[in-house]
Amino acid sequence: MNVKRKLPILTFLSLVFSVIVIIFPTNSAYAEEDDRILDIYGDPIRTNKDYILVHKELEPDQAIGVPLNQREAAVGAHKHGITFETYIGWYYPVTSHNNSYFGGEQHYDTKGNLYYGTPINFEAPRGERGDGYLRNDTQVSVSMKIGNNSRWGGAPKYHLTGTNSPYFIQNKSQEKIYTVLKENSKELNLVADRVTLYHDKFGRPTTSYNAHTSYISTRVLQSWYTGREKAWVQHEGRGYAGLEVVPIQNSWDPESVNGTYHLISGVNGTSVVDMSTRRSPDPNIPLNNVHLHEKHDGANQKWIFEYDQIIGAYQIKSATNPNLVLAWNDSNNSNNVFATPNQQKLEHYWILEDAGSGYIYVKNFKNQNKVLDVQGKGTSNGTNIIVNNNNNGWNQSFKLEKLD
């Protein structure tokens, strides 16, 4: 009798547990299900989020006497991640050597552990949206924020580029695209390319014409000793240790900017970005054109900033009609800016970057060399707003005045 009573109870508990797992899947469960790669604490790695990137290979003094295939540090054991070295105006990726290296940039992870290094972001390739997560075979670029964050705009982003010896550059159009290779749920490699190598019958490198054997070599991004520090290179072969990703506490939260603002121009510090509410008699000027105007209390001068975590950029919506977004009219070689119905096109998103003295640059997401610009540095009402290549001028600088 007792056995007969226990079996239904065990069955019931098993069903309850199954329902819990389905409704509240563990990190491991959804990582296996959709092939997402996890950070060291078991959360899915997201694009446009700050991380410290760490190569898991043992340090040389730790590797003495350790077989090659075992020279991998435990999860979270390494506290020195990627940072940068400046050389004649260029920024090169290196591993933070110790707690005083390059000013000792320090960050705490989400569990309060101290790490050394400079935050990086994984980004979808230029011109693509992505879905916000890293999976096996995801195409990504790597960017690093070099400089100080401000209240209204993040530090300038530099994008990793180059071949054997990569370096950081501000021009996103020259970013290097890597393919994510999942080593396990919490470890990855970034594949730069795969090349065919040829050997002659004596095992020496040769051309395809003289080849006796050939094989495919995978080149991955990893740190490599060059002396007192470890440079990051695109190294032939995956090695015995991959990369792990450490989530950090953000010093600047982009979502903290969400809200309604005046966009005050740096040309005179008083005029604001204004959306026309009347159709211009000029057929070349579109409906809802955007221009400069002296400040008043009209809704057509108020802009709602909403951050999109997946894109890693803002939509700037008109308070007159939130279905209208600030956009670059990217057609027929136009550089005009207007408010248009929101279709979530890439040119409908903007990135805020610190310009100093409380001002920001407003960069278009589709082409991040293009920034919001007061045409001709004019100050009169009706001066047109366009996008133009960034020249660091005051007519490209704006200040956010919060209204809510």
Ends apart, CA distance between termini:
69 Å
- Uncertain parts: 1-7, 16-32
> Considering DSSP H and I runs of 4 or more, what fraction of the residues is helical?
under 10%
Per CATH, which architecture of the largest domain? Trefoil
The average pLDDT is 85
Give a quick account of the main beta sheet: strands, pairing sense, barrel closure: 9 strands, antiparallel
Describe the global form.
Answer: elongated
Give the assembly state of these chains: single chain
Provide the CATH topology of the largest domain: Trefoil (Acidic Fibroblast Growth Factor, subunit A)
| Count of beta strands | 27
Radius of gyration: 26 Å
How many domains is the backbone divided into?
3
User: Helix/strand-derived class?
Assistant: mainly beta
Broad CATH class of the largest domain: Mainly Beta
Strand residue content: 35-45%
Write the element-wise H/E pattern from the N-terminal end onward: HHEHEEEEEEEEEEEEEEEEEEEEEEEEEE
> Helical element count?
3
What does this structure look like?
There is one protein chain. The protein is mainly beta. The protein has 3 domains: 1-25; 35-247, Trefoil (Acidic Fibroblast Growth Factor, subunit A); 254-402, Trefoil (Acidic Fibroblast Growth Factor, subunit A), CATH 2.80.10. It is built from 3 helices and 27 strands. It is elongated and about 80 Å long. Residues 1-7 and 16-32 have low confidence and may be disordered.
